[in-house]
Acetoin catabolism regulatory protein (Roseibium album), 582 residues
Amino acid sequence: MRDTEHVSEIDRVLKGQETGRDELVSESWRRCVQTYGMDPTRPEPAHIVTEQQLREHQEQSERLIATARSGLRTLFKQVAGQNYVLLLADAKGICVDFFGDPRFEEDLRRAGLYLGSDWSEDLAGTCGVGSCIVTGEAVTIHQGDHFGLSHTPLSCTSAPIFDTGGNLAAVLDVSLLRSPSPKSTQNLAMNLVKASARRVEMANLMAMTRREWVLRFSTSAEFLEVDPEAAVALDDSGHITGMTHGALECLAPSGAAELIGTRIDQHMDLNIDDLPDLMRGRPPEERVLRLRDGRGLYGHAIAPQSARVSRPQAIGALSGPLRNFGGPDPALAQIAAKVDRLAPTQVPLLLVGETGTGKEYLARAVHVLGPSNRAFHTLCCSALRKEKVDGIAEGGAGTLFLRGIEDLDDEGQALILALLETRNDLRIIASARREAADSGTFEAIRPELYFRLAGSVISIPPLRHRKDFDWLVDRLLRRSPKDVRLSPAARAELGSRQWPGNIRELATALEIAMALVEGSVIDLPDLPPPSGSIHSKTDPDDDLEALLDACSWNMSLVARRLGVNRSTILRRMRKAGLSGKR
Ligand SMILES: Nc1ncnc2c1ncn2[C@@H]1O[C@H](COP(=O)(O)OP(=O)(O)OP(=O)(O)O)[C@@H](O)[C@H]1O
């Protein structure tokens, strides 16, 4: 474009005529003339601040520059060989870090693509960094989009970097001294620079909020852990204390601008106690977040780092994935505290409990508490295949979960022993069903294997013995996108059932009820019928004391749970030498 054409186009834009320029550019031109008093015909040399001023700007942005540097280096590699120059400017537009080809140093310096150059719009006119700062948006200012004639050969693509409070902190820019004519040639540069800015914000948020929960989001399960779109930091009460800029788009796309200080449950069906469920222990596709406007996102929670080393006793005070292992029940709290202490060790754990009591859930929690980025391998002992064991033998270090060791036959035992001989970098967690442990099935397991699996044996109580039944019900109800409650009658009915399938059966029953309920209150007709007992125990008195304990020695409740009448309970109590209320 010739200089006279450029100046006359600016003139026409100022007179309100349509010239085909992007509106963002036309607006910036108007600001340059009407607000900053600039003249496009007057050549503006590059503005470079003094060394002392540059040092001051660098110090102010030190932390962010340190975080952004590795992102900048990666981006530079991505555009290597294409003559791009990379700039990091602070919020005032001063270039505080720079990557460029040293062969073109003199040209770059003359063009202002250099450390210390000032690209604020009121000084440099319409330009990538300056317009990005004014609009807060990613922009490409391509050739004749620039206001000043000295800049019109350049093509600059810039994206804003926001700090954790949502304030513009810096601008990442890729520029070319010479570029092809169509602006669309810079679309790829735009995508790269936006993605880099997003990653710098993410790294900055992680570095600044180590003592808080961080919840990351993605619209795709595959990218959730490797390249999430946005994140927020949350304090103990679930208030948002920090964010990446993308969180606004994810949580408030219609422009309800303020996220900081709001509670996460205002935006989605989630509260702080649910975060441990969104940690790495569960597959990403199961970690769905329901937003208040009905949209779904995948979520990945990262526990506060300092809290992991503390050893609190009360279950509610435990951090990370164990926090939701149980509610108000001293027996569960004791288990969680023990597991919390054993988690950082290599002691093999044997989790014993009836089906559906949460053995695998607990194993995954232990895995998440261990070193990050490790595999969770599962071997189902009842259908053990050599190829599967071989796959694990060749796989990465991590946790090996052996489900149902009572089902191991001789061949399976030999395979596992051989695996354990060759791999000492696997944390072993095994599970066994309660009935198997009681009936002495373990005796069929060779001692040299049994003692390698049963370092610490942890017994998980069946649901009917748990005192936190209501807590668990509420927790499972919260998994639904619907806002539903239980009527008192439905809650009492569920509380009186025996639940041979334990938490798994309860979760399914609630899922059915949530699907069937028409309004927001689940009542008796919405509940599926009880499944009946699948283990007819040979001696029901075995469990009686624990069951009485769980029901606060209310004999009618115990009778309902066992499906017998109250006099049967009294008779059994006498037989077992149990009497009166404790
Ligand atoms: N504390 C909990 N909070 C919410 N859901 C839970 C909890 N514990 C277990 N569950 C859910 O209950 C179901 C059964 O849990 P899990 O698979 O861990 O049981 P299990 O004891 O390993 O069963 P099995 O012996 O039959 O393999 C799962 O859907 C799990 O997500």
Notes: The two ends are 93 Å apart (CA to CA). Residues 324-325, 353, 355-361, 403, 431, 433, 475, 503-504, 507 surround adenosine-5'-triphosphate (CB under 6 Å).
